Amino acid sequence: MIMRNILLILLSVIVTLVCVKNSQTVDIDLFVEGKIALWKLLLTFFVMGTIFAFLLKGSKKKQHQEHTAIFDESEEDYEGPKSKLSDEDRDFLS
User: Fold this and answer.
1) Fewest C-beta in 10 Å: which of 12, 25, 75, 90?
2) Any stretches that span the bilayer, and where are they (predicted)?
3) How many CB atoms lie within 10 A of CB 18?
4) C-alpha span between 90 and 94 (Å, rounded)
């Protein structure tokens, strides 16, 4: 948890430094024509990338949970041969 906070602080400092160092105006001709400050453009794409990564991470986590749930259900359905261990042996191993 502490390492995550340190990385977030470091990332915010780096983003701030990049935005401060890139204050010039650039011509943009993507969807509209115009001039925009480079730091605004960089910050916009950084935020969009962060949101995209967050959405990808969320979908992978959901898929993993679904896979785990399916695996758990299949274990319950399995009725293989009972173990030949006595109750005393099971207690010792656990």
Assistant:
1) 75
2) 37-56
3) 14
4) 6
Per-block mean pLDDT, blocks of 10 residues, the chain (94 long)? 88 92 90 91 92 84 62 55 76 80
Q: Give the residue extent of every domain in the chain.
A: 33-60
| CA–CA dist 48, 67 (Å, integer) | 29
Which residues lie below 8 Å from residue 20, measured CB to CB, with a gap of 6+? 39
Query: Do 25 and 35 contact (CB within 8 A), yes or no?
Result: yes
SS3 of the chain: helix, strand, coil, percent, to 5? 70, 10, 20
Whole-angstrom distance, CA of residue 22 vs CA of residue 71: 51
